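User: Thanks for the earlier help. One more: Haloacid dehalogenase-like hydrolase. Can you show the sequence and predicted structure together?

Assistant: Of course, both are below.
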Amino acid sequence: MEHKPVTVALIYDFDGTLAPGNMQEYDFIPAVGKSAAEFWEESNVIAEAQDADPILTYMAKTIECARRKGLSLKREMFRESGRKISFYNGVPEWFGRINAYGAEKGIRVQHYINSSGIKEIIEGTAIAHEFKNIYASSFLYDEHGNAYWPAVGVNYTNKTQFIYKINKGVESVSDTKLVNQYLEEEKRPVQFKHMIFIGDGTTDIPCMRLVKSQGGHSIAVYNPSNMAAFEAMRKLIDEGRATYVCPADYREGGEIDKLVKTIIDKIWTDNKIRLMAESLRVNHVCGDE
């Protein structure tokens, strides 16, 4: 009997999970002459005043501020901002090491981003090539290549749609057909029980809860230099929303390194037991004939 290799999906939020702070604060917000506090407050005031989605208002604010300052709104401008982002310790080396660890056990590891941040900024980062897909907020562009309207706004609840897309192997954001077609869980490209979701905040709670409830693993991470953040993440454990909490330190031998490798070990062992059970069942049936 031929068996497909197991695929494990590591699904990451971005801001506060792989990099400290918000991606817009590294380059874009200073470039428009505002402090981070000013930018987010102005965006949130609009959201509250007009009962709007805060993700869409910050995207609208991004376009407005860039136009007022005469800044480019081309895709490359956003990608250039992404090149300024720095990461938590160990992030650049993390992906290759975890891929190799899975490969040693015959497990294919795939990495995904599921973020409310700007996709075009993430595409400019030094780690963009590590991801099979980047699901994040993005812009529509006019005939001159300038951003003029949100194409995708990813908030804390609609983040969960991308978990289902990963589960069924649907790469397109615009697809509404394949993702809704029935497919037995065992035949899906990435089973829920083979997912590991890593996030840092309240916007990640629906995804954490979904993955955990379906048999996968949810890891809440926090800035190692901020113990108040640790207390907030530990609360997610107490509330049953996350499975584990770790500092966002991705160096070899660190807590999250050991944890993810142990989860991969468990997935490998569970799969081995399943294959043994199938083999014994087949042999028993053949022996009875």
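User: Great, one quick takeaway?

Assistant: Residues 27 and 267 are 40 Å apart (CA to CA).
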